[in-house]
Amino acid sequence: MIVRDSLILAQRTVTKMVRNPEQFLDVSVQPIVMTVIFVFIFGGAIAGTSQDYLQFALPGIIVQTIMTTAMTIGVNLNSDLKNGVFDRFRSLPIARSAPLMGAVTGDVVRHSIAIGVTLAFGAAIGFRFLTPWYSVVTAIVLMIVFAMSLCWTSVFIGMLARSSGAVQGLSFLIVFPLTFGSSAFVPAATMPGWLQGWVAINPVTHVTDAMRGLLVGNSIMTPGTSVGGEVLWVLLSCVVLVGVFFPLAMRAYRTKF
User: Fold this and answer.
1) DSSP 8-class letter at 92
2) Does the structure show a pLDDT above 70 at 58?
3) Per-residue pLDDT for 1 more than 70?
4) Radius of gyration over every alpha carbon of the chain, rounded to an integer in angstroms
5) DSSP code string of 213-248
6) Are 127 and 55 in contact (CB under 8 A)?
7) φ/ψ (deg, to 5) at 131
8) Mean pLDDT confidence for 37-49
């Protein structure tokens, strides 16, 4: 019952995206813009050449894009709340949790597009996959799982905030310190000592290292880390995210209705 209802509402989410193509701009244009900015503007100063920096930065750009994409769901759900969409759901014979689970499941399409566009554009400008094909597939699947888990953070914020603008503002306050205060764009060794301590425990650092290991190999990962260890860390973080924010989001949703 819950699975069926969630899949039906996930289809609604995808249909809504297709009918409003502008919803795909952030997952189709933003990754390209961010890649161009970081690689061709900052690449020479940071790594010596744009090509070397592309190998280092592209996994981090994917992580940043996914984090931004995952936070968008809270804005959309908050707008649906204000427009009375969830009032209509209440009148339907569906599981109470289906609207939220359907929205998160439907967003897999946006996550997949964001990852695919970033990898395709990266390959077009010279990014080299130095690992077997199954490692690349594992990286894509891992990022989608992480994105779906992270979505519950945004869903929780969307249920609590009074406006979609507030959701967007809170989301940026979460995403920016995590992404730029990590090893996503520069090696941690180049940062001040006090900041390196934060980078070492920052979840985004571990997610980025997992992506680098799966796409490029161990050579550009943070010293002392391993691909298997970082992948396991990401999976555990997904369990924690869902375990904490799924019940909080559902409680906030039931409180409203």
Assistant:
1) S
2) yes
3) no
4) 19
5) HHHT-GGGSPTT--HHHHHHHHHHHHHHHHHHHHHH
6) yes
7) -125, 165
8) 86
